[in-house]
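hey so i finally got around to running the thing on that chain from the lab meeting. sorry it took forever, my laptop kept dying and i had to restart like 3 times. anyway pasting the input first so we r on the same page abt which one it is
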Amino acid sequence: MGLSPLRDGKGAGSLAAAPSKVAAARDAFLRNEPVPHDVIRQPILASWVRSAELLVEPESPELGHESPDYRDSPLLRLAAPIIDTIATELGDEPMSIILCDDEGVVLARRTGDSSLQQQLDRVWLIPGFSYAERYVGTNGIGTALESLGPAHVFGQEHFVAPLGDLACAGAPIRHPVTGKLLGVLDLTCWRKDANTFMITAASMLAHRIEEALLQQTGQRELALLHDYLTACHRNRGAVLAVSDDLLMLNDQARTLLDPGDQAPLIAAAVEALASGRAQQIVVDLPSGTTARLHCRPSWPEGSSGAGVLRVQLLTREAELRAPARVPRPGPMPAVIGSGTLWNKCVQAVTRQARRREWLNLAAEPGSGRRTLIRAVHGAEMPATHLRLMDAADYDDRWIAELIDELEEARAGTIVLADVDVLPPAALQVLAEVLEPYRESTEVDRPWVVATTGGERVSPELTELLTVFPRTVHVPPLRHHIEDVPDLVRVFVTRLTHGSDLTVSPQAMRVLMRYRWPGNVEQLHAVMRRVVAQRRAGVIDVDDLPAEIAATTRRVLTPLEAIECEAIIEALEAAGGDKAAAASRLGVSRATVYRKVRDYGIAVPRVGAKPAVTSRRRRSRDSRAAGPAATG
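ok and heres what got predicted. didnt touch it at all, straight out
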């Protein structure tokens, strides 16, 4: 396809009204005045309305944060040779070829004209940045994504002023089998050079990429079919093959799986397969059944999740074979709290204990992981042994003792605490030791629980955690703040050995407004300090440590607490810049300003770290809170 004769001598008159009329109509729209419908095309006007509702700044837009992963896009790997070929055909013509993903992130840009390239750099139309409408308003890329069809935008039809000298035409790229929107192929040039061929050329280039996708899809689906047939031949149980475009189930899978369970099971499997390596995961299904999935990818890491699954349903047979337990009235002993997130966590850990499914319990320090494990063990396996092995004590003898426990433990619990602090070599040794025991089907096999708490992630830790099919996240105290009153009452009773010391409503409100960076452990330490000063009577606000003073004006719901946490982390990452934080969160600046005011978040000056919410401060607060009370 030859694209070099770009100029047809007529400009873009057949596609857009005279530039002066369009500019006047844009000014009228921005002043909330009527816009002449014979001047502005309906798709452009609709996009202007969307841009205004998204609070896009018409004079100086703020682009989304640069995406660091755009180079790993499968669409880029496939389309790059096609784009390079077309760029060679164009030579030094003042035309840029731009490939974007389905979020508007620019994956590649080819420009032969230096002046046009400099202008695109000035408006940040460069790889890694998104040109979705929510960031830059009306443009050929974002508007094509919103309208799900070809879009051309010339000169002052752009919502933001810095793009007024440019013209662009974008065409969606769809998967040739599923029709799923994968991205946009965009042609951008100077407004004066735009012509009627641009939209046609963009559509033809997008079609070329779709043809290449179709050819590659055929090869990949053939590999997936081969793996599926091999798995069906070797296994009598339920087998599925999944990809973005295909789902295959054998007869056993259709019989075993409830129709309502299939979608969540497949979603979990696709996420696991995307890692590019074989692994085993456990999934709780809507019907109440739990499934163990053996996932083996058919395509390499970095591709879309696709591969073969062997499914084993974990029925209640193990529970029926277990010794009968006397029903417990009320909540589980030693597990304090009735909040929704906390209860959900307790129930998930209890299910894993009953099935002897190995578990990774992840949480911030001080959230109560060890207390929770002890409580579940005592409730579900009261007559068996519990052994806690702290990774901080790791040495050669530690490994030998673990092997002894794995060999001798019968229906008991082994806790490997804080394994994320181990050095890489130790993590590899631990994974090798655990691997032979993890697939045991013995009813009385030990229940092994690992705990992790830091943000450190390494390939060795990732490999170790594949031994544990399920990770349960213990919510931080600020996400189930409604449990603070129960915790306070229990702590006061224990620390005073049952005296009549109580907490005033005003003091309780202050305790519930605090964000507790050190979690339950910090709350316990604070109450120990308070009780040391007052052994009887009523604890009032004046008895509380000064650092517990809250900035919020009301107690947040669990959902609000999570939202507040996300805003604080975005502000921390942006150095206090509210506009940058809004871009990170994908919301408008107005939303961030309103939430900061509503939640009473103390925002530092731009460039500074929020002292209260930084992770280093949280770690110091947790260490300063005293000995672990809740693990």
